[in-house]
Design brief:
With about 450 residues, the protein is α+β, with helices and mostly antiparallel strands. The protein has two domains: about 325 residues, no CATH class; about 80 residues, OB fold (Dihydrolipoamide Acetyltransferase, E2P), CATH 2.40.50.140. Strands 1-8-7-4-3-2-9 form a seven-stranded mixed beta sheet. A five-stranded antiparallel beta sheet has the order 16-15-14-20-21, covered by helices on one side. Strands 17-18-19 form a three-stranded antiparallel beta sheet, with no helix packed on it. Helix 7 packs across helix 10. The N and C termini lie far apart (about 70 Å).
């Protein structure tokens, strides 16, 4: 493949300040941001996405295997990539100080983050910096590294300012503001978990998130205007009855139930986001049009969208499109759900391996679910979830599930265990084969 001739066909943005911001341990870089100030004093922000479909063509073995997998799977101790390593970690990855091919959305933004115009184009970029989220956060917090230029520092601060406005506009439009910690495991040299800890999203995470959302939303809107069949990321409204029950519970309990419990119940009432050719909007993001465009290294739907962009937005006649998009949506939604379940199973496995070293020990936790089988308690420090069996809740009373009020109550004593209550529990057993942890309450 002649890279020089391909570069001549593209918008050359190698001289524009460009950088990636990813987790510290990331190996594949889907996306990069560029920043410049225009002659009129506005901001030019480029969202540059690895041009995976330039290298992975329909009918190829790599494409067929990527479609079958649907997505990369991130287990605790390893990654199962959607694409071969030579593609995801090398050829397509937007590594620093290398010329890379991208499909980009270049925005001109006013000082109030209003989009003045946008341009979708094929580009060539050259990333100047590979930052992790903490390094970007340090810049936001006025603690930059001495190796970082004034130009980079100003770009990060300006993008943070713009992202804050974009985020506020989403929230004002009704987007859900539910953030979840990311569980992490510290493994010893044998791959055994010795610690469980959590990382909260930082402002630098929000910076990247808002510009990826803006690009995805823009691409979806443009594709919808073509009148052609496309793939959308949709999220239906929540179940009204479930949501009403949550609101009633929140009003009745007031400050006695932590906000985290209300957020958890709200999430449970939500529909799952899926892929579809029939657009109904994205409830959680409060967007009328949304798709997945920004992660083609790890998600096959983004590759489909890249081909749609090439044919319908860039007018490239020779582009082959994935056939039977409704069938693809069903398959890819299913593979995403299977990947999510595999990731949860992996976390549960390593939680059990960790807690097996702590049988008999006591921990503080919170009731996160009430069921006919008993209480599920989540430990404060590690979020390990275990069951307190119904039969162990009382020696001399019949315990009943009150589903409407999210509690288990003694028939005679009126002793009550309610969602959100904090308890001290002892670890009784941890069965890796059954994926089950059992607790008993310390009264």
């Amino acid at each position: 493949m002649n890279l020089d001739s391909e570069i001549l066909r593209r918008r050359d943005m190698r001289e524009v300040l460009t950088f990636t911001i990813d987790p510290a341990d990331a190996k594949d870089f889907d996306d990069a941001l560029s920043f410049a100030i225009t002659d009129t004093g506005d901001y030019q922000v480029g969202v540059h996405i690895a041009d995976v479909t330039h290298f992975v063509t329909l009918g190829s073995k790599e494409n067929s295997e990527a479609y079958d997998r649907g997505t990369s799977v991130y287990l605790v101790d390893r990654v199962l990539p959607m694409l071969p390593e030579r593609l995801c970690n090398n050829l397509c990855s937007l590594r620093p100080n290398e010329d890379k091919l991208c499909v980009s959305v270049v925005f001109t933004l006013a000082h109030d983050a209003r989009v003045i115009k946008s341009k979708v184009c094929r580009t060539v970029i050259r990333s100047n910096y590979r930052l992790n989220y903490q390094q970007a956060q340090d810049i936001i917090n006025n603690h930059p590294d001495e190796t970082q230029s004034d130009e980079l520092i100003q770009a990060i601060k300006t993008l943070h300012f713009l992202a804050t406005i974009l985020r506020r506009k989403r929230m004002d439009a009704g987007a859900l503001d539910i953030e979840q910690e990311e569980m992490r495991f510290k493994l010893d040299e044998h791959g055994h978990p010795v610690d469980i800890y959590f990382e909260n999203p930082m402002e630098s995470n929000h910076l990247i998130e808002e510009f990826m959302l803006l690009a995805n939303r823009t691409i979806a809107t443009l594709l919808s205007k073509t009148g052609k069949e496309a793939i959308y990321r949709i999220h239906d409204k929540p179940d009204d009855d479930k949501l009403t029950a949550v609101h009633k519970f929140e009003r009745r309990m007031g400050d006695r139930v932590p906000q985290s419990v209300i957020e958890m119940l709200t999430i449970r009432a939500m529909a799952k986001a899926v892929y579809s050719t029939e657009n109904i909007g994205h409830y959680g993001l409060a967007f009328d049009y949304y798709t997945h465009f920004t992660s083609p290294i790890r998600r096959y739907p983004d590759m489909i969208v890249h081909r749609l962009v090439a044919k319908y937005l860039l007018g490239e006649r020779g582009v082959q499109l994935d056939t039977d998009l409704p069938e693809a949506c069903d398959h890819l939604s299913q593979m995403e759900q299977e990947a999510t379940q595999a990731e949860r199973d992996s976390e549960k496995e390593f939680q059990i391996l960790w807690i097996q070293d702590h049988i008999g020990q006591q921990f503080m936790g919170q009731i996160v679910s009430v069921t006919p089988y008993g209480l599920f308690v989540r430990l404060d420090d590690t979020h390990c979830e275990g069951l307190v069996p119904m039969r162990t809740l009382s020696e001399d009373d019949y315990m009943e599930l009150d589903e409407k009020n999210f509690c288990i109550r003694g028939k005679h004593s009126k002793e009550q265990y309610m969602l959100g209550n904090r308890l001290c529990v002892r670890v009784v057993r941890a069965d890796l084969d059954l994926r089950q942890i059992d607790f008993e309450i310390i009264k």
